[in-house]
Amino acid sequence: MLRIGLTGGIGSGKSTVTELFKQFGVAVFDADIIARQLMEPGQTALEQVKTTFGNTIVDSTGNLDRTQLRQLIFHDAQLREKLENILHPRIRHQLLLHMKQATSPYCIAAVPLLVEKGWQTIFNRILVLDMPKTLQITRAKQRDKATEQHIRAIIATQVDRNTRLAAADDIIHNIKGLSELRLEVEKYHRQYLLLAERLGVQHK
């Protein structure tokens, strides 16, 4: 199985790109979705988070109060690290399991903090979505209805653009419209099929 790690900063278009790859029948896994599943009631990760942060981070129905948790960790690097230490080993384990079970010639795993956490070694190739910071801020503001100050604060917690690009095997400069982005995805889809074929992965 050819494993492609997809990453990019906030607002870079990861969700859009993964949807485009899905249209080609590619198995796609999302670290953020896995994280949400791990924090559902009854999951051991949520129980550990409650032990670490207190029962006030869940509501009356036992569901995680994501807004309160984000507020707790946003300006406190130590608390954010504690949360990541609970979640990230579990996310990595689930990603590896999903990729092992995938039946398409190659798979895509979207991991926002792929470079930050040094997960490059679990993938065959790293595909980075890149754009200038000004465009990144504009798109993230539109998507999240957030202030520029808030978006800049999130960007500050991520690796800088040059570091992310240095980790890339492949790059999509997501600076135009959806039509151009679809063409880029199609180009890499063909490339990854050829690479998978060289690895002996057959269409199923």
Which helices and strands, and how do they pair?
Layout: E1 2-8, H1 14-22, E2 27-30, H2 31-38, H3 44-53, H4 66-74, H5 77-101, E3 106-110, E4 125-130, H6 133-144, H7 148-156, H8 161-166, E5 170-173, H9 178-198
Parallel strand pairs: 1-3, 1-4, 2-3, 4-5
Defining key terms:
204 residues; alpha/beta; Rossmann fold; 9 helices; 5 strands; 13% strand; globular
Entry summary:
The protein has 204 residues and is an alpha/beta fold. It is 53% helix and 13% strand. It folds into two domains: 119 residues, P-loop containing nucleotide triphosphate hydrolases (Rossmann fold, 3-Layer(aba) Sandwich), CATH 3.40.50; 72 residues, 3-Layer(aba) Sandwich (Rossmann fold), CATH 3.40.50.300.
- Net shape: globular
What percentage of amino acids are in beta strands?
5-15%
Number of helices: 9
Spatial order of strands in the largest sheet: 2-3-1-4-5
CATH class wording of the largest domain:
Alpha Beta
What's the CATH superfamily of the largest domain, by name?
P-loop containing nucleotide triphosphate hydrolases
Helix content: 40-55%
Number of domains: 2
Order of helices and strands: EHEHHHHEEHHHEH
CATH architectural designation of the largest domain: 3-Layer(aba) Sandwich
The biggest sheet amounts to: 5 strands, parallel
How many β-strands, per DSSP? 5
